[in-house]
Amino acid sequence: MSLLGLVAILDPPRPAAATAIIACKQAGIRPLLITGDHPGTARAIATDLGIINAGDPVVDLRDPGTTDHAKVSVYARATPGQKLDIIEDLRAHGEALAMTGDGVNDGPALRRADIGVAMGERGTQVARQAADLVLADDNLDTVVAAVEEGRRVYANIRRFLVYGLSGGAAEIAVMLLGPFAGLVLPLLPAQVLWINLLTHGLPGVALGGEPAIPGAMADPPRPPSVTPPSASTGSCTRPALNGPPPIDHITVIGQVCHGRRSLLLLSGAQDAPPRWLTAARLWKG
Q1: Using CA of residue 257, residue 258, residue 259, residue 263, what is the dihedral sign?
Q2: By three-state DSSP, how is residue 140 classified?
Q3: What is the per-residue DSSP string for 37-83?
Q4: In sequence order, which residues have a C-beta less than 8 Å from that of residue 224 and are 6 or more positions away?
Q5: d(CA 98, CA 37)
Q6: Which of 58, 142, 207, 221 could be bridged to 28 by S-S, CB 3.0 to 4.6 A?
């Protein structure tokens, strides 16, 4: 018997994937890779994409031991139950998570995450039903674009609230101070309606259509479930997480964060080729 040769099969990441990972990190999104593949495969893919550096640890979940999930970004040989355990442990430590997946084994984790994102093209029916959102083109670039668009929308809502409330406050001041100046009724109801029509109509549409400001993707994440900023003080409050997080910086996908951090979970199918682009997670702050 003679050896004629060896055949190797490579399933490389998409060309734009590394750029998308860099953009996620700049936006304050921490990417995690959870896969059922061999630790060597997980390390090679995560290093190529920039999720970890060459010397960073990769946890083999066949013998996990005690793992500090705050310091680990890549998990290999993960079972569906272990994916669920990782998500629950991170949530128990105050993290808000978005999980993407495409397989039946990703269903429990997609359901347990704050936002489950299923692949629309190659995702299974089980994954799509378990997820909160479906990514139509299975492309991580779409997540980045959605985060940027969500941040633009949030900034424009803030801008319009400040503009609208400042105009309303001026009208209230006129009505309250007018009698002290000898004006019994400074503004008639029809005049108030006309002023609001002029000031909140076309100007409001213009403010709502403003493009994203330069450097919007370099801002730190906004904590999930915060109320809209006060137009007068610009402050934010952070109530407890009840139900799914608000769709903020990801009109299409959702943004997930905790304080100044957010996590992007990339989940590969167990004991399958590295289909790493099956999970995502996002938020903006």
Answers
A1: negative
A2: helix
A3: S-HHHHHHHHHHHTSS-TTS--EETTS--S--TTT--EEES--HHHH
A4: 96, 114, 241, 245, 246, 255, 256, 257, 258, 283
A5: 21
A6: 221
Half-sphere exposure of 242 (CA within 13 A, CB side): 4
Q: Where in the chain is the domain with CATH 3.40.50.1000?
A: 17-144+256-270
Q: What is 17-144+256-270's CATH number, 3.10.20.30, 1.10.1510.10, 3.40.50.1000, 3.40.50.2300?
A: 3.40.50.1000
Digit-by-digit pLDDT tens for the chain (285 residues) are 888 898 888 878 887 888 889 988 988 888 999 999 999 999 999 999 999 998 898 999 988 677 788 889 999 999 999 999 999 988 888 887 888 888 898 999 999 998 888 888 888 999 999 998 888 888 888 878 888 898 899 899 988 888 888 888 888 898 899 888 888 888 888 988 888 888 888 888 888 888 988 888 888 877 766 654 443 333 333 333 333 333 332 322 322 333 333 455 655 433 333 333 333 333 333
**Distance (Å, rounded) from C-alpha 134 to C-alpha 119?**
6
Q: Which two tokens stand for residue 42?
A: 């997980």
